[in-house]
Amino acid sequence: MKNLKKDLGAVNKELKALAKKTESLITIVDKLGKPLSVKKPKAKATKVKTGKKALLKKSAGTLTSTGQVIKIIKGSKAGIDVSKLKEKTGFDDKKLSNIVHRAFKRGQIKRVGRGVYKVK
Questions:
Q1: Structural contact between residues 73 and 117, judged by C-beta atoms closer than 8 angstroms
Q2: Parent domain of 96
Q3: What is the pLDDT of residues 44-83, one digit of tens each?
Q4: What's the pTM value of the predicted model, to 2 decimals?
Q5: Cα(95)–Cα(66) distance, integer angstroms
Q6: Of 108, 10, 13, which Cα lies nearest the Cα of 52?
Q7: Residue 94 lies inside a defined structural domain of this protein
């Protein structure tokens, strides 16, 4: 029984020594595995303008698609539905849906009814 305890104690010490060696090897491998740091030039973040001021700056020359839609919506006092917007602009359903959704999120237009929009 005493021999068994001695043997288990020796095995325990060997396992702890092996654990320390493997941890040190892991740290060495991690250091070797890291790529050399190459500094890349970072692109500067530009602030995207949204809202009425951005729309006015874009509409100085030619109107964007969003500008065209908002101009048409401004022209109707009671609001305009999507089908009439489609007739007047000639845009397909997906493009018109994206424009209206984006303008609504920006707060440029509001919903008067289902599919009917008006300028705020």
A1: yes
A2: 52-119
A3: 766 665 655 555 555 455 788 888 999 999 988 889 999 9
A4: 0.48
A5: 10
A6: 108
A7: yes
Look at residue 2 and tell me if it is in a domain: no
Sign (positive or negative) of CA dihedral 71, 77, 79, 80? negative
Say how many C-beta atoms besides its own lie within 10 A of residue 104's C-beta: 14
The CATH number given to whatever domain includes residue 56 is: 1.10.10.10
The type of residue at 106 is: R
How open is the CA angle 31-33-39, to the nearest 5 degrees? Answer: 85
Residue for token pair 């006015």 = 56
Q: Which two tokens stand for residue 6?
A: 């001695």
The rounded distance, in Å, linking the Cα atoms of 91 and 7 is: 84
